[in-house]
């Protein structure tokens, strides 16, 4: 559980200064650039949030292939040119404009920071991957409650016993996010999220955490625990932290990820990723 | 127009020996392995057909990124491991089990053959990309006629004046396939094909060929011409020959593609790529 400290909110996390739901991506990124560190669930409603993972160019093919082979967990929204710190999708600076980052060396977490300029390398390629926060606004609109937003927490995430399909040097387990859903609304949650295949889409698992190797819903591997109330079912979606679990399992020399739940807020509308 | 000879049916193309629509993928691949050379439109109804392009490993990242950046034209269905000649999606031998191949050196077509074992290299990575033939069965079921199947021809394909988003060493124009659709059925054709985003999905252009740089519908850059009858509209879908147009434009040292319209017939059902 060593990496739990990476994502639990700690004393350095501050309250956001204004209504975060109505904020623009540019404003949110400016706050994060100034050092605000906070999970981004519920921020900038209607704007797409993204997972990031940056690897040296010589690992980029394996990572892109890993993403292609595990599309539910790793839906690629954009990839930077080598060394670039922004993309058409993300007008900010990828080194400073997320709330927090995790730095890996040989698969170990060596740092957790709000700015990665000091460890940035010109050979890095950064991947932006879809995030399930994108469909939470649609869930709320459809009347499906989202517990971690209600509680002002980060979403709970778990490493599962399901293996991703490996690619070159990369292998590792599927990571999932969990949302408790009232039994009567599970079908609605499936239907709504199915319409967002580019941001994890439909759940990968409904109910029975043990069947996918999750022993304790109160002890997530990343993020904050949330209670599952009587009459609710734990519903699991593939999670864009999966590449970071692959970094941990496969131990490449260097990688940077976002701190789970502390996402890149992009300039794309959620509706971009809605299919008819 | 030098490459038109690549795809026009010529004297070496033979009639298929049995009902091709009802054939299994394994049976079709066996016939192609024995040397049968024929466009695959209408073959193996319900089974997914794929474009292929094989490049050396050192170009594979650029090609995978090119595909990711141009997903309507280059929907990746599978990628082989380096040097592998089959994948979970395609149980045959990628070097022999397509009806015909095009071999490129420095972007020029240097050979067109039914077997590429003599030029195969151990460093090749083969991409399987979605093909619009996949949704033709659904179009027919919805009552939308498919002219090139009616006429027993290859589909007409055109290089457009639209540029793909480049990636590394690869750039080039979007290639499209064209089907004439009765005006009253254009909306149906859009609706039906929208449900197959992994195999090019909805049209990229409806009507007015000149607007995308197509001067003469009777002179396709690949495949056979088909007539557009009065009351019909030419409808254009992104085409998986696009990577081969990028090879021509970008001139990498070596690449292999399928002969346009002469596809890999996979072991996946079309329904795999149907979204709700």
UniProtKB/TrEMBL annotation, chains A, B:
- A Pfam family this chain is assigned to: D-Glu_cyclase
Could you name the domain of life of the organism this protein comes from? Bacteria
The Enzyme Commission number assigned here is 4.2.1.-
Basic and acidic residues: compositionally biased ranges: 1-17
What's its top-level EC category? lyase
Keyword Metal-binding in annotation: no
Which UniProt key words apply to this protein?
A: Lyase
Spell out the InterPro entries in the cross-references.
Answer: D-Glu_cyclase, Putative_hydro-lyase, UPF0317
* Span list, region Disordered: 1-21
Matching PANTHER family: D-GLUTAMATE CYCLASE, MITOCHONDRIAL
Protein family according to the UniProt entry: Belongs to the D-glutamate cyclase family.
Designated name of the protein: Putative hydro-lyase LX15_004240
Species of the source: Streptoalloteichus tenebrarius (strain ATCC 17920 / DSM 40477 / JCM 4838 / CBS 697.72 / NBRC 16177 / NCIMB 11028 / NRRL B-12390 / A12253. 1 / ISP 5477) (Streptomyces tenebrarius)
């Amino acid at each position: 559980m060593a990496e739990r400290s990476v994502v639990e909110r700690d004393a350095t996390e501050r309250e956001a200064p204004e209504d975060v739901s109505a904020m623009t991506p540019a404003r949110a990124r400016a706050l994060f650039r100034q050092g605000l560190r906070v999970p981004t669930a519920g921020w900038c409603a209607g704007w797409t949030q993204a997972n990031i993972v940056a690897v040296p160019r010589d690992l980029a093919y394996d990572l892109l292939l890993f993403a292609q082979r595990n599309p539910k967990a790793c839906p690629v929204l954009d990839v930077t040119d080598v060394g670039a710190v922004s993309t058409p999708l993300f007008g900010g600076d990828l080194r400073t404009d997320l709330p927090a980052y995790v730095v890996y060396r040989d698969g170990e977490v060596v740092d957790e920071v709000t700015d990665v300029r000091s460890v940035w390398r010109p050979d890095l390629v950064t991947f932006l991957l879809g995030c399930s926060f994108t469909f939470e606004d649609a869930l709320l609109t459809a009347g499906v409650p989202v517990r971690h937003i209600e509680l002002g927490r980060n979403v709970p995430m778990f490493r599962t016993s399901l293996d991703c399909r490996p690619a070159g040097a990369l292998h590792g387990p599927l990571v999932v996010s969990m949302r408790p859903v009232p039994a009567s609304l599970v079908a609605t949650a499936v239907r709504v999220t199915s319409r967002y295949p580019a941001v994890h889409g439909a759940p990968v698992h409904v109910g029975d955490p043990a069947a996918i190797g999750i022993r304790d819903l109160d002890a997530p591997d990343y993020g904050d625990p949330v209670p599952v109330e009587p009459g609710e079912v734990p519903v699991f979606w593939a999670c864009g932290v999966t590449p970071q679990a692959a970094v941990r399992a496969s131990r490449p020399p260097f990688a940077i990820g976002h701190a789970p739940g502390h996402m890149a807020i992009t300039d794309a509308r959620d509706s971009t990723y809605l299919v008819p």
